[in-house]
Fold:
Amino acid sequence: MTTTTHREAPEQAPDRDLAQLGLAAVAVLVGAYTVYDATTLTVGFADPVGPRIFPYVIGAGLVLLGVLLAVAALRGDRPQAEEGEDVDLTAPADWLTVARLVGVIGVTILTVDLLGWAISGALLFIGSTWTLGSRTLVRDVIVGIVLAVASWYAFYSGLGIPLSPGVLDGVL
Amino acid sequence: MDSFGLLLGGLEAAATPENLMYAAIGVLLGTFVGVLPGIGPAMAVALLLPVTFGLEPTSAFIMFAGIYYGGMYGGSTTSILLNTPGESASVMTAIEGNQMAKKGRAAQALATAAIGSFVAGTIGTLLVVFFTPPLAEVAVKIGAPSYFAIMLLALVMTTSVLGSSRLRGFLSLFLGLTIGLVGLDLNTGQPRLSLGTTQLADRIDIVVVAVGIFALGEALWVAAHLRRQPVRVTPVGRPWMGRSDWSRSWKPWLRGTAFGFPFGAIPAGGAEIPTFLSYVTERRLARDPEEFGHGAIEGVAGPEAANNASAAGMFVPMLALGVPVTATASVMLAALTGYGITPGPQLLSDESDLVWTLLASLLIGNTLLLVLNLPLAPLWAKLLRIPRPQLYAGILFFACLGAYATNQDPFDVFLLLLFGLLGLAMRRFGLPVLPLILGVILGPLMETKLREALTISDGDLSGLFDEPLAVAVYVLIALILVAPLVLRRIRPHPDTPAAEVARARAEQDDERVER
Structure:
């Protein structure tokens, strides 16, 4: 679903939006796997429905809808992309920024247990602001550190939820 | 009027200094998050769920009430001052309110929105108190077959009535139902779709799904299409209204409330249709219809009241039946479940104290909103100037924090990222978000009821139809599915409110391009 390549302004849009085929393929695959997964379940006693029926219906429905979407896309049915307050649909999409943000979150996932939330969270904020085009690095670093450390303390002492302290164990 | 006695009891419980503090924090947090561009009430509640993890249920729900109404109020501020409705229900406010702001009447627009919201919210909440107990009383007697049918009706209505493409609506619904399947089977305890991981066998936390789809999806979508020009915010002073503003506002408030509440209580009613109906009605009744489109105060007062009344109406099916009909309701219902409270018709009898305290705190939250936010409006308006990189980085930060805090497991942040990408794809491909969220919540409940119903009839499908109510609901579902096809035959271009809203929106966009 991330294989979307182009997104022109509505005036010069091509007849068909074939990126939808990617979404249709995901729907068919997920649906088919859901049906397969259901076949591995065993039906218990005293339960005439069993754990299989729901996945069968949902999986089959997903496959069918995926196929229908593929047909609709090939016949020229176009989606209506969502508008928003800060969204400018007339400019081409900037998938590079999205990929970088995904990378920044990926770093957080990998490091949060090791470095702890106070450090990983700060890196997350700083990395995201930079990726999104902010060039006030010093301010962003300060804000990021304050946010991350403050949220760690708020959850630890305010709500009694110990977020991972990581390498700062004993320091915080 | 036993209900009112119980409500007074609830007020007593909610009015402790500690609970008042939670209500105030909720209102302020909700408004803060709601004013931020790009965040609607559902996302506000989802993002702020983790803040309530450590609290006991009563306090948490008092805070939710504040967050919810605060988030709604914040949305109108954005519409009026920025001309950017965050959700379709605010479109009418944006059209008329922003024109008022441009004429230097932003203060009056904000005031009529705030006071109208207060009036509608208060009346709406009292109506909830009035309608919920009798409905719950009937609902307790509803058997599994009818209950299954009602949930199916909720899903079909939200999926096929909203949005421009029914195919995409149903695709979204089935994706949600699939997510709802993940985890241990409720009867036999076998893991489904868990891919061999223990974290998935444990069911996916609805907080992670909601925050991923709403917050992260939105942030990624905005990142792909960030409007690079600086925003223009209309300056605003302290909101106040003159004598003529009052006399022009009070009737639209009441009429808007009358439109909003019933629509809020039915699935797929939402706030979009009543706000539109209210706007059209006010235009028709106005002494000077020409003023509409150029900043008529009635056009802000009516739709804002309708919006808040429908927000209150949502609590009727949620508390009486355990069936959420909006995205916000499903997030709140998920939060209930997180406290080990089973939603459903028994809620009112089992957790009577909690429900009455919640209803009472809706009234308190509504009042606090008015008292706190009218003076604070200039401060909220400043929030609109937050630079966008820091704003969306902040949303990413809090989304990850919330997901991580649910179990202190990085795997949840990974899931959040997956749902964020799904949310991004849904926005790109025009899939509506609400059917997915409702599918995640209602899917497992429906499966339970279906299996219950068929166990009683020993697997015979007739067990699904042996209650008259269930049969009636199935007829209704069939009508909803077939009606649009028939209507399309008769009238080639149905003049639905949704189409009308889209047209108004398009005109507005044209105007923006011209500027």
